[in-house]
């Protein structure tokens, strides 16, 4: 899938400005589905408008430039449905934390402990987000509850593994340099 598809998916649920689409696709709930950069959202919206998949209306506020509000058209909805029928590529998983873990032998224990603590904090934060999504599931898109439960399951498993095995990762850190310890 591509940025074009994620823009259409966002607009399927509500009209939005380009800024709102950028924020949802890079920082909020739609950021989990497709990699989208700030630099790719507006060109995609422009092409979608040229192709008749979205319409744009301007809203005026006193003393501010007009806001462009995008809406999905029937053609855009048909394109979205067609795009969603293509089987997905394998999920991509990238983790800076895992790169730190991979290189644990180069790092001191304090660095690894801070990285583990940060990862635990991030996982717990994501779990809170899934709580909120599950609360909104009845009034949201039909798949929201299922997606939130799936995300919860994956994050709970990661958190459980990390809590149960943090000592193994901490044990992989480089041994302190005896010469530098003796100098202290």
UniProtKB/TrEMBL annotation:
* Residues of the Transcription regulator PadR N-terminal domain: 8-80
Q: Which Pfam families match?
A: PadR
Which InterPro entries does this chain map to? Answer: Tscrpt_reg_PadR_N (IPR005149), WH-like_DNA-bd_sf (IPR036388), WH_DNA-bd_sf (IPR036390)
**Superkingdom per UniProt:** Bacteria
Name this polypeptide is given: PadR family transcriptional regulator
């Amino acid at each position: 899938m591509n940025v074009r598809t994620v823009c259409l998916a966002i607009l399927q649920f509500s009209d939005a400005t380009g800024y709102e689409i950028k924020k949802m696709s890079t920082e909020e709930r739609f950021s989990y589905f497709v990699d989208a950069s700030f630099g790719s959202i507006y060109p995609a919206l422009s092409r979608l408008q040229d192709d008749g998949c979205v319409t744009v209306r301007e809203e005026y506020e006193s003393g501010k430039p007009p806001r462009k509000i995008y809406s999905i058209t029937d053609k855009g909805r048909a394109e979205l449905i067609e795009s969603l029928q293509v089987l997905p590529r394998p999920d991509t998983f990238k983790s800076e934390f895992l790169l730190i873990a991979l290189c644990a032998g180069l790092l001191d224990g304090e660095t690894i402990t801070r990285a583990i603590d940060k990862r635990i904090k991030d996982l717990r934060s994501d779990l809170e987000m899934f709580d909120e999504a599950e609360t909104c599931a009845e009034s949201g898109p039909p798949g929201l509850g299922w997606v939130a439960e799936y995300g919860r399951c994956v994050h709970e498993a990661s958190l459980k593994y990390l809590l149960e095995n943090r000592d193994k990762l901490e044990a992989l850190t480089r041994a302190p340099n005896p010469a530098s310890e003796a100098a202290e």
